[in-house]
Amino acid sequence: MDSSDSECLFCKIVAGEVPAVIVREGKRTLAFRDINPQAPTHVLVIPRDHYPDAVTAAREESGIVDEMVAEAHEAAVADGITESGYRLVFNTGAGVGQTVFHVHAHLLGGRGMEWPPG
């Protein structure tokens, strides 16, 4: 696994080459506001290292997916949405809407969510 991909938008955000509204910075993670929010709270949580999708990240057995979920929870706390609840979404593959192939969790909250999604 390469630690970064020079063509990856999220790797460029990690490197400071592309601006983002950062809400949390961990040693191995970064959380920032989505530029096209689908809810009042819509934060993306990414690892600083490049993994193309959630399965690849989980198979590394480094605990990075655990850290991403914990950071998403802390971002939810900061936005005051833990009591009402929030949704975490990992899209894996173009067919389900993954457009940036750097694993990321969508933290969504601040409004009611329908089920099933999509």
What can you see in these coordinates?
GO terms for molecular function: catalytic activity. Pfam families: HIT. InterPro entries: Histidine_triad_HIT, HIT-like, HIT-like_sf. It comes from Haloactinospora alba. The structure is a single chain. By secondary structure, this protein is an alpha+beta fold. It has one domain (about 10-110): 2-Layer Sandwich (HIT family, subunit A), CATH 3.30.428.10. Helices cover about 25% and strands about 20% of the residues. It has three helices and five strands. Strands 1-2-3-5-4 form a five-stranded antiparallel sheet, covered by helices on one side. The longest helix is centred in the middle third of the chain and has 16 residues, at about 65-80. The radius of gyration is 14 Å and the shape is globular. The model has no long low-confidence stretch (mean pLDDT about 95).
Write the layout of secondary structure elements.
Elements: H1 9-14, E1 22-25, E2 29-33, E3 41-47, H2 54-59, H3 64-79, E4 86-89, E5 105-109
Antiparallel strand pairs: 1-2, 2-3, 3-5, 4-5
Short description:
This is Histidine triad (HIT) family protein. The protein has helices spanning 9-14, 54-59, 64-79; strands at residues 22-25, 29-33, 41-47, 86-89, 105-109.
